[in-house]
Amino acid sequence: MTLHSLFYPRTVAVVGSTSPGKLGHVLIHQMLDGGFRDIYAVNPKAQGFDGVPGVAAVTRIGRPVDLAVIASPAATVGAVLEDCAAAGVKVAVVITAGFSEAGNVAGEEQIKRIARRSGIRVVGPNCAGILNTGYNLYPTLEVRPPAGQTALISQSGALGGAVLAWAEEQGLGISKFVSYGNRVDVDEVDLLAYLADDPDTKVVALYIESVRDGRAFMAAAHAFTRRKPLVVIKSGRSRSGQRATLSHTGSMAGADAAYDAALRQCGAIRVDTVEEMFDLCKGFAHVPPVRGRRIAIVTNSGGPGVMAADWDEKLGIEVAEPSPALRERLASFLPAHCALRNPFDLTVEGAEDGYRRTLEAVLTEYNAALALNVNTPYLDSAALARGICDAADATGKPVVATFMAGSTVADALPVLKARGIPNYAIGERGVTVLARMAAYEERRGQWRPLPEVAVEPCALPGDGQMLEPDAMAWLAANGIPTPAYRFAVTAPAAVQGCRELGYPVVMKVVSPDILHKSDVGGVLLNIGDDAAAQAAFESIRHGAAGKDFRGVVIYPMVRGAHEVLLGLARDPQFGPVVAFGMGGIYTEILHDIALCVAPVDRADADAMIGEIKGAALLRGARGQPPADLAALAALLVTFSQLPFRYPALREVDLNPVFVSAGGVVVGDVRVIADRGKETDA
Predict the structure, then answer these.
(1) What domains, with CATH codes, occur in the chain?
(2) Residue segments in the chain with a per-residue pLDDT below the cut of 50
(3) How far is CA 574 from the centre of its chain?
(4) What is the pLDDT of residues 66-84, one digit of tens each?
(5) pLDDT of residue 316
(6) Which residues contact 643 (CB under 8 A, 6 or more apart)?
(7) Whole-structure pTM value
(8) For 209-311, where are the E strands, in sequence order?
(9) How far apart (Å, rounded) are the C-alpha atoms in residues 39 and 10?
(10) What are phi and psi of 14, to 5 degrees?
């Protein structure tokens, strides 16, 4: 595989000035200091240093070169890549900046053309390099971190460098690092595919500002998380953050909600901060898999233990009490004043043996444990840490620690680090890690392929502009439940339609010029007789004066049903996405929406329904009958397939959809086709 040459090159050429302070000089020093020796310095003066030979071009090295690291001026990069291609270089890392992020799109396009034509793989440009600690390879501008089992992929060189600089302080070892910058060729999809098979990597931390191909990214991440955890920071949540992303990388950021949905669907774990990322990576790198949500908290202080337990419950973790048998076992060796419930409080008298024996006992019944110690100056914190580590080794169960605080626990921290027990500043952070590790294992155990659709694409009816009656007929033809209706262009026809449907009815205006019908009095409810129907038609026609009035559409009144909404839109990165939430007035008031990248399968649909806060209403609250959630889920699945069957669809809104114990039926539809013409119903 070509990327093997990126991380395990036999020979490396560093292209750029070797004068002190120049990037080429820095890169060669980094590699030499890290222990890599098979290096050539490439620059017009053929200048080498510190035993590194200098040549004027890569083609003059006279032996195979696997990796070229390019730090020459932007204007020279194209010619350098041509030279590399002629020399048979497999991979090039372009450190040089000054491309699309600075408006030099043409220079970036030149790099792409050379890469495609020659087959050379390119990382960058505008990146901070790569490293492989297990191979003593450090062609990067950043610090050399401790070796470990976490790989870091970062679109931002600065953020990646900061993480590497903090790694030793945080007790996080790094296996491999790639800063890929403007992503002209090699991207996160390629790197995830490679790292999934990397024996030195247990978990990947990924920082992204955008993805080039959302669907390809989802497929890569979904395949990766079946085998290893993926922890993601996606910047650009806010509008200001999205603007910064555009200027920083020269790439387009998609809607953050779509990223959130996509990451969740492919099993990645999204975090908001670097601190959260460190916490999780330390857990995944050092702690055995957390297979279950029963967590024990063993502490020597009631307050912090209770706070950690409270946090556990917010995360959906089961802080269950021990069985009578376990309580009896604990009572056989713990003093009478110890709390034998969960949290298990050893009190300030808790010692090395007490922590060890208690943890060994509780881990026969619980899936994982937080060992929490609030130290006082007279206690030997190192001994307490040894007791915790010994219990983790003896049981093979997941254990994390919280030793607080400051200088009183200084002696414990090296013991925990050496024995591979992650330490978190507060208990809440420790239990958060256990909770998210448990959720990852649950999802991996339920892994299934991403949903697919196999339909023949076809055109929308007519020219894609559908008035309400046409849109309802189109929905019905696609297997979506719609109500009986009548379309009328005159008052007598409207009265006749009302009689046929049976009073009471709803009457709505039909006009391509009116998007928000209620604003012009275009929706009238509870029409109960012929006279009211006649008056309603005239009122609606009067409200549409000056508009292209086409008539009215009439439906039976729906009573006793909940109102939900279903929506479809196209995201710039991920394509069609489907939204679900409470409809009617709740849409704007509660903003209670679940989002998934389309298509969705039945499991996705059930999860979307359960995700919203209004799910309790749909399940039947205060004695109300539960809605037909099976029918609602089936509707979501069918609805999510529409944009694949009709590629011209840009947006579809079904709001409201009436859902009751008797099933579902669409109450309103709006369709927007690619040509930008909107129809509203």
Answers:
(1) 1-126 (3.40.50.720), 142-282 (3.40.50.261), 287-445 (3.40.50.261), 484-556 (3.30.1490.20), 562-680 (3.30.470.20)
(2) 240-254, 676-681
(3) 12
(4) 999 999 999 999 999 999 9
(5) 85
(6) 568, 570, 575, 576, 598, 649, 652
(7) 0.92
(8) 230-234, 269-271, 295-299
(9) 9
(10) -105, 115
